[in-house]
Amino acid sequence: MGGNYIEVIFTLPQPGSIQQDLLIAGLGEAGYESFLETEEGFNAYIRQEAFSDGLLQAAIREVPGDSLGYEIKLVEARNWNQVWESNFTPVVIGDTCRIRASFHEPDPSVPLEIQIDPKMAFGTGHHETTWLMASWLLELSLPHKKVLDMGCGTGVLAILAAKTGASQVFAADIDPVCVESTVENATLNEVPVQPLLSDIDALPYSGFDLILANINRNVLLDHLPFYAEKLNDGATLLLSGFYQGADLEAIRDRAGECGLTFTETRSRNKWAAAQFRK
């Protein structure tokens, strides 16, 4: 990316929440090109000549809640690569998996590497929920398994499933930018992933042995009946994108109503992941 950019650094009360999703959607419509996850929220980038404070304020006004904070910075062209490298450092999961950008050097000491160029889609391994899902996925036996990554973002989980032996991997999202990002990242990693621009209720496939969904709590609650319908008997559902406590309890209760059995939960910095069986 050439030229000067404006960086807007957002601090949110609940990073990864529906507030964040709505804000990113609004900013995307306002011309923002890239987003990077942070522990406090996310950073958004737009070309300096395309920046409008009025459009920024309009996007913020459309988001419920008033406790988000933001800071605006100018990123000069000569510093752009430095900004990416300082914000997107490689993520190592256990001793076996390293998630990096294409501008990072490979590390031959790590058995499994995934290259991700996030662009406007989320999922680099930095956020606790992506880390939880990826680390759990590494423990599963995937050969001969049919896998769905719902709400795929960058496609990082779908790519990881393909790299660890799944026979069929589908990656679905309602955002065409995410589907495009998944296609590009799957090509970058030389793995077969079938992209789908679809929500779960319109998905033309079923009979999955594993469904992965790292989405926010409210969407997961709506999706759970469809996950149950599309899973094979004895299949596994891995969910994240919500907090411990009340969020997890709501997910567990709704899953039970849909005939899914809760088996385990894990957490990282108050974020939770949960496993269910059909």
Automatic annotation (TrEMBL):
Physiological role: Methylates ribosomal protein L11.
Enzyme Commission number: 2.1.1.-
Any one Gene Ontology BP term: methylation
Main location: cytoplasm
GO terms assigned for molecular function: protein methyltransferase activity
Keyword match Transferase: yes
Family the UniProt entry places it in: Belongs to the methyltransferase superfamily. PrmA family.
Species name: Anseongella ginsenosidimutans
This protein's UniProt keywords: Cytoplasm, Methyltransferase, Ribonucleoprotein, Ribosomal protein, S-adenosyl-L-methionine, Transferase
Binding sites annotated in the UniProt record for S-adenosyl-L-methionine: T130, G151, D173, N214
Reaction(s) this enzyme catalyzes, per UniProt: L-lysyl-[protein] + 3 S-adenosyl-L-methionine = N(6),N(6),N(6)-trimethyl-L-lysyl-[protein] + 3 S-adenosyl-L-homocysteine + 3 H(+)
One Gene Ontology term, aspect cellular component: cytoplasm
Protein name: Ribosomal protein L11 methyltransferase
Record-linked InterPro entries: Ribosomal_L11_MeTrfase_PrmA, Ribosomal_PrmA_MeTrfase, SAM-dependent_MTases_sf
Subcellular location: Cytoplasm
